[in-house]
Structure formats: structure tokens, C-alpha cells
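Hi C.,

You asked whether I'd gotten around to modeling the 135-residue construct. I have! Everything is below, sequence then structure, no commentary in between.
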Amino acid sequence: MTEVTFSIIIYRFLSEYYKDNMQDMKKTIFGNRYNYFLELTEDKKFYFEIYAKYVVTNQVSIITNLNCIISEFIDISENNPGYYETTWEFDEIKEADFMFKIAQDLFKSTYFIGYLEDQLDEDRELGGWNSCYKF
């Protein structure tokens, strides 16, 4: 068995394992002025979103497509329009799961949360935040 064949077998096994064991993944993170909700769901494809809730007014927004979020995941100069949407869509669970794990790691950083919350204050002042999502 060649190394390539072995890699293909492992890839197929892991893909089937992830499909069979996929449950919606959700994580709530408590910041200073905002709380955050990371969500990875499946409906034929895999969908990843990050929500922020301003704790003073309970205003909510999906923030996955903010530049300060996108830049942590990809090189902004890359031409990948999918990352500029509020919901990121993936065909493969491995990539979606990887993004979810990166997000969890990001939100462990108090420096990142402080920087993000300053950006969110500016974004919220521009409008478009509402209270339609509860977490």
C-alpha cells in the first residue's frame, strides 16, 4: 500500500467519522461588554457563525464577517468571498471543525477580546444590531 493510498483511506475514514458523529457545536463565551456565541451547524453542508451580544442593551449581531474576525482566519488579501458573508459555509466537516477550534482559541485571549470589543463598539454605533437572537 502506498503512502498516498493510505492517506486516502484515512481521509475517507475521518470524513465518515465526522459525518456520523457531527452534532451541532455551540460555545458561549463571556467577555467584558459583550457575550459571544460560536455556532457550527449541519444541514447537508456545515455552517459557522459568531454572534456578539452587547450586555447593556442585549443588542445582537452576527460578527463572523467583521474584518477583525476575518483577518484572524485568513489573509485578507486572499480572494475568498465566502469569508465576507455573515455565515461561513463548508463542504467538509474537517475544515468547519478547524474554524470552530480556531475561534475557541481566539476567544481565550483577553487581549483579543479587548481589541474586538473596541471594534464592536464602533460597529454597533453604525447601527444594524438587533435583539432577535437569544443565547
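If it helps when you're writing up: The two ends are 50 Å apart (CA to CA).

Thanks,
B.
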